Every structure is written in structure tokens, then in C-alpha cells.
Amino acid sequence: MSTPRTTTKATTGTSRTAVAVPPTTAPATMAQASLYQQLRSHLATLKLLDAAEHLPAVLDAAVAEGLSITAALERLLGIEVDATQARRLASRLRFACLPSPATLEDFDYDAQPDVDPRLIADLASCRYLESATNVLMIGAPGVGKTHLAVGLARKAAEAGYRTYVTTAADLAARCHRAAIEGRWATTMRFYAGPTLLVVDELGYLPLPAEGASALFQVIAQRYTKTSTILTTNRPITSWGEVLGDTTVAAALLDRLLHRSVVIDIGGDSYRLRDHQARTHTLRAAATHV
Ligand code: ADP
Ligand code: MG
Questions:
Q1: Which of 7, 51, 114, 280 could form a disulfide with 80 if both were Cys (CB 3.0 to 4.6 A apart)?
Q2: pLDDT reading at 195 higher than 80
Q3: Which pTM was predicted?
Q4: Distance 120 CA to ligand 1 centre (A)
């Protein structure tokens, strides 16, 4: 933290030596010094710590640039507002538990023609969150489902929405623990809270019956209120198998698809692309010798 400057001889008020000093707001009298300290203390009491820290610099700039009181106050509080927003964003991103740094900006649409860039741009605006629309992404492993879901979650957190990313297996395990430890209601409230919940990887691991039921309850309580993005490698026709119960599967799909966008990605795995290209080159080379 900066401290007020009190070193300039010419500003002590008692010196008779005329020394040329640049315009400054360093306190020239004891009364001014105490006023300055009071202002800093007000800012600290109000927990406007960034404003308090930048007070000397803003006061100096106000004199140097001839700012009006309104402009100087706006600059000082603007610093506090920027810092507060940055802190809130960092906290939302921490809460979101994004599993990777993937962003929508680094998604390669040419590699995945099944993904419509206009649809993703529309989702990136977060408008779908206002209407509690769900997004279901279906596709084989490696086609970019998690990448897109994480990119959308990041956009939502950046836009100020409470966002949380989990996997179907983690959700089931957490609900299982909650049931054993008598925290079921609290855990259900936790999953109801975020404006956007991402449930990744439904279908990779078989869900036990109580896991399927927990997922159903989470989706059901969010239904029509808040948005869920769900990703899966299994076509919806086999969800009865995935969830171990066709009735639960039908009820879950009914809620999920009631108001939804379905992104069916049929392309090749992005992970295996390089591998496939290398194999192809090697094979081509081998057949030419
Ligand atoms: P899925 O969840 O469908 O199994 P991922 O989203 O995990 O696939 O993608 C696998 C890897 O490939 C990730 O590192 C992801 O960032 C990358 N990837 C997938 N598709 C694309 C794409 N179209 N553009 C850029 N990177 C991609
Ligand atoms: Mg994935």
C-alpha cells in the first residue's frame, strides 16, 4: 500500500525557502493531513481497499490533469469497481471448476462440420440461460463435446452467471455420499443453485440405479428454471441401458428435451485425427516401396 508523501520541504507550511515543486496534493497543513487520513480511513472502513490504495495517485493525477471533483471521484471509484468485478469473476471461475482451459475461440469448426458456428455463437451470447434452455451434446469420444461445454461454461461465468461443471459419475458419487451422510437436501440445493450446470460424460461409466435417480432429481428440479448442458457418447435410444431403467430414462429425457438445443456431432475424433493422419501417411509410404 502507498503511504501519503510528507517529504517535500516546501510543503511543510513552515519553510520560507521558495522551492519550485510540481503540483501535488500532498497535505500542506496538519488539518489537510488529518483530512487525508480520514478519507483513507473512510475508504478502509467501507472496505474500498483498492480505492484506498490508489488514492494518492488519483489525487495527484487530479491536480496534474486538472480533473474536476466529479471526474476524480469517478476515476477513484472506477478503480474499485474494476477490482471488485475482477475478484467476482475469479471467484465465479473458481467455483465453476472448469476441467480445462478450453475456449470457444480455439474450437476448430473446419475440423467438425457438424457443429454450426452460428449456433455456438448464439449460445455464447448466453441468451439460452434466460429461457432455461438445455443443451444436449451427443457424439463419439473425442469429437469436442467437453471442449464446447467447457467453453460455454466459461462464457456463462464471464457473463456473470453462477456456473458449475461436473461429470455424471462425480454427481452420482457425491449424491451417494450425501445420502449416507444425511446431506441429501443440501446437496440437491447445491445442484439447483447454478444458473448453468454442465453434466459431462453421461454414458462412459454405467450409473448405479441410485446414481441415475440422483441425476433425474437434479435435472427435474432444474427443469424450466435453469439450464443444464449434458454431454453423452450414447444415442438417446440407449439411455434406458445407460440409466438402467427405461422409465427413468424417458422421464429424464422428457424434462431435458422439453426446451432444448441438441447438438449431434457425428464427425471423427479430434484426438485421433493426427494419429489417423500419421497412420495414413505411413500406410501410403509403405504401399509405395
Ligand atoms: P469429447 O468430450 O467429445 O470426448 P473433447 O472435447 O475432450 O472430446 O476433445 C478431445 C480433445 O480434442 C480436447 O483436447 C479438445 O480440446 C480437442 N478438440 C476436440 N475437437 C476440437 C475442435 N474442433 N477444435 C479444437 N480442439 C478440439
Ligand atoms: Mg468429454
A1: 51
A2: yes
A3: 0.83
A4: 15
